Amino acid sequence: MSKNNKTNYQGAKSLKPGLQARHMTMIALGGSIGTGLFLASGGAIASAGPGGALLAYIAVGIMVYFLMTSLGELATYVPDSGSFETYASRFVDPSLGFAMGWNFWYNWAITIAAELSAATLIIKYWFPESSSFLWSVLFLALILGLNVLSVKGYGESEYWFATIKVTVVIIFLIVGLLIILGIMGGEAVGFKNFTAGDAPFHGGFFAFLGVFMAAGFSFQGTEMIGVAAGESNNPREHVPRAIRQVFWRIMIFYILAIFVIGLLIPYTDPNLLKGGIENIGVSPFTLVFEKAGLAFAASVMNAVILTSVLSAGNSGMYASSRVLYSLAKRGKAPKALAKLNSRGVPINAVLLTTLVGMTAFFASMFGDGIVYTWLLNASGMCGFITWLGIAISHFRFRRAFQAQGRDLNELPYKARWFPFGPIFAFVLCIVVILGQNTAVFTGEKIDWYGFVVTYISIPLFLILWLGYKWTKRTKLIPLNECDLSPTVKPAE
């Protein structure tokens, strides 16, 4: 950006670091604990049995661990709010960075709208006759306010949102253990539900594959730490600490929670398949709390799930606006989106993202459930594409580091198990992407409607990538020409 363009902006010249270590940990942790655990876990157990669900979540958890360590190595060496866009542009190809940035922005901007629609459905548990439009306005105003104030406002709100979710999971695990042992809820359950029917594994390979996909969606959001690193007070210390803590916490919370649900609720329980935004009363968490005699369980879980969807919307607003800001700084988006207010917030990027979030208002006109489903389908596999890009970028970064004769001791944080980690994550991401909806191919005829709805994200990404590559004539950057200079702040 030229000097003249800089002077046209009234406000800060760069993003202002304001995220502390506790914020970083909770941003990564809170981003992955939400409706995927509170609601989708029940359907996973019903589809593949407790053993199948447990195995799928363990496999995806390991993949996410490798992705997080890859991202940690990149984010500590080059802390930048552009994150995935920056790394792909510097270590792979500028066209891939362009596509990664816009893909990520689109994914989370749409997620804001989807989460707002979900919030209106949840609030109707208490106020069934209330206006969807009114609740959408109120929730969007809340998210916008938290993001416009400062990065610290986002960090503090996300810290407390995540704290609520973590607290509920811990209470759930304690209550579940007491029921299993017979201390609460009557007779000890033991392992009988884990082996009921044809459990622990049920439904065969394709059922397991479907749960594998659902588990992947559940873990999405952990990559937020890469964006937040650009506004951390001390990314070289905070990011590695957050990654080390988050992996074990996620594995404990997810794996133990699913194990407890599998022990307490047989996979044949029809309520497991009904759990969803429209029916909080049969969330597996609610069912377990009710087994313990806690009659208010549905209301409590409703409130917790409401904080979860607001947290997801809040994180989506933050991360997508920062990546959009980074794209603008590098000439890959309109320059006006690089404008910062006096508090160092990319105000125009936040406002544009808010406009996309306003599509949630259509929920009041066309029916909440339908719009919510379509908004989710619209974002499709964007999150998995982001993960794929992280694995590729890290592999290329480390290879470039070695090709240029650099000492690995220069890295503030080194990802373990290289090159196995990014290769393993890459392969599993490909499996997840291609296997998203195998059901469209298994019928007598191909379900073309289902095929398009499921896989539309792939051609959209390819259009962005190849379109930019064709118009700008970009090429794969040779390893010995990759820019390995560390930067603390986004490029000016």
From TrEMBL:
Q: Name one Pfam family in it.
A: AA_permease
Indicate yes or no for the key word Hydrolase: no
Tell me which domain of life the UniProt entry assigns to the organism this sequence originates from.
Bacteria
Bilayer topology term: Multi-pass membrane protein
Q: Which residues form the Amino acid permease/ SLC12A domain?
A: 23-475
The portions of this protein that span the membrane are: 21-45, 51-68, 105-127, 133-154, 166-185, 205-225, 246-265, 292-312, 345-366, 372-397, 417-436, 448-468
The region annotated as signal peptide is none
Q: Name one GO molecular function term.
A: amino acid transmembrane transporter activity
Q: What is this protein called?
A: Lysine-specific permease
Q: Which organism is it from?
A: Fontibacillus solani
